[in-house]
Design goal:
The structure is a single chain. This protein folds into two domains: about 270 residues, Beta-lactamase (3-Layer(aba) Sandwich), CATH 3.40.710.10; about 120 residues, Up-down Bundle (Methane Monooxygenase Hydroxylase, Chain G, domain 1), CATH 1.20.58. The protein is built from eleven helices and 17 strands. Helix 2 packs antiparallel against helix 11, helix 3 packs across helix 8 and helix 6 packs across helix 7. The radius of gyration is 21 Å and the shape is globular. It starts with a helix and ends with a helix. The relative contact order is 0.18.
């Protein structure tokens, strides 16, 4: 009966979303009106301005929202230094792994509809992954249990990336060009022939799990991932600039990406000549999206408000609550002592101005960041375009934002 009610509710929501999009902008407010100190928030502006002036980033954007209103939205520096194009509110950036929470929300839309079960083996939905074994130096060993959908969402699947390590399994991923696969089907076909790095559920290990989850979304929904995102998340939330590529009409708003080196920042990927200028065949739910600060804050506010933005519901409130609680098994952590929910890191304890208990969020390879603190009714988006990944922007901004809380 509960599943029937959930299915009926999901059908009703789907019908509403098919004809409704959120056109209302998130309102602006003076910091004091939402319990923030304007004087202390000004320190955020000063810190990021200095970071850009010191050549640590070509440009940046910071957005702080509390109690459903934006109290700080600042742009810094340039989105392209050679062309002397300033960073603007609507600059489009590479979000890389900040795509992962969006893919997980898409899967949870199907969960709310009763079409996806979290503890079901992934092979139920993606038969190419049937019979996965675990790496052993002598011969692959049998898995003690199957990889589940929940494992994909919390990175306990046993998959890897093949990018950040050099284990025997990472080497296999590199040889097979897992990340460079033609499309999602080609990727899971290759993964089905390779061993897992570890037994499912026993370790947190960053991986292509969310890309596999994107394949699950496609198989269950019967739609391409970009179409499902557009119909069930982007259009309902009016995330108008979020996609897997930048259309020609928007290229002049796309930021260049820079890389750090001994001589400072150099251009890694100019805005006018890169792979994001045409639709990809590999729809990477793990790292393929471009977006804007405005769009991503709308996504954040949907989560802050328990799955609803301005009366348009994307997820059930209890689903968001479950996603944003630690989901790792006993004895499993990431980053030493942190938890992980379904698609987000979860802070398990207070750490002063560095982090608040219950805070959740994630980042992207080009040094983009977001975090949400439910107990403070606070959401922050901090963006730059610098590779390899550096937490410098988040480390500069986060303590100053928390110190700006006055009530």
């Amino acid at each position: 009966m509960a599943n029937l009610k959930r299915w009926a509710a999901a059908v009703a929501v789907a019908c509403l979303l098919a004809t409704t999009a959120v056109a209302e902008e998130i309102p602006r407010a003076k910091p004091e009106a939402v319990g923030l100190s304007a004087e202390r928030l000004a320190k955020v502006t000063a810190a990021v301005t200095k970071m850009v002036a010191d050549g640590k980033a070509a440009g940046a954007i910071t957005v702080v929202a509390r109690r459903g209103r934006i109290a700080h939205f600042e742009t810094y520096g340039q989105r392209d230094r050679d062309a002397k194009q300033p960073m603007t509110d609507d600059t489009i950036m590479r979000f890389y792994s900040m795509s992962k929470p969006i893919t997980t929300v898409a899967a949870m839309v199907l969960y709310d509809a009763g079409r996806l079960r979290l503890d079901e083996p992934v092979e139920t939905y993606v038969p190419e992954l049937r019979g996965l074994k675990v790496y052993h130096a002598e011969a692959p060993a049998a898995a003690k249990r199957k990889v589940t959908v929940r494992d994909l969402m919390r990175h306990t699947s046993g998959f890897t990336y093949g990018l950040f390590g050099n284990t025997p399994v990472d080497q296999m991923y590199k040889r097979e060009r897992i990340v460079g696969s033609r499309d999602l089907t080609a990727m899971v076909e290759k993964l089905g022939r390779l061993p897992l790095m570890h037994q499912p559920g026993t370790r947190w290990h960053y991986s292509v799990s969310t890309d596999v989850l994107g394949c699950v979304v496609e198989r269950v929904s019967g739609k391409r991932l970009d179409a499902f995102f557009r119909e069930r998340i982007f259009e309902p939330l009016d995330m108008r600039d979020t996609a897997f590529f930048v259309p020609e009409a928007k290229v002049d708003r796309f930021a260049s990406c820079y890389q750090r080196g001994p001589k400072g920042l150099t251009v890694k990927e100019p805005y006018h000549a890169n792979r994001y200028l045409k639709p990809p065949t590999f729809l990477s739910g793990g790292g393929g999206l471009v977006s804007t600060a405005r769009d991503y804050m709308r996504f954040c506010q949907m989560l802050v408000r328990g799955g609803d933005l301005f009366g348009v519901r994307v997820l059930e409130a209890e689903t968001v609550a479950m996603m944003t609680r630690n989901q790792l098994p006993d004895g499993v952590h990431w980053g030493g002592r942190n938890g992980f929910g379904l698609g987000f890191s979860v802070q398990r304890r207070d750490d002063g101005a560095s982090a608040h208990a219950g805070e959740y969020g994630w980042g992207g390879a080009a040094s983009t960041h977001f975090w949400i603190s439910p107990k403070d009714d606070l959401a922050v988006v901090a963006l730059s375009q610098v590779m390899p990944f550096t937490p410098q922007l988040q480390k500069a901004v986060k303590p100053l934002v928390y110190e700006a809380l006055v009530e």
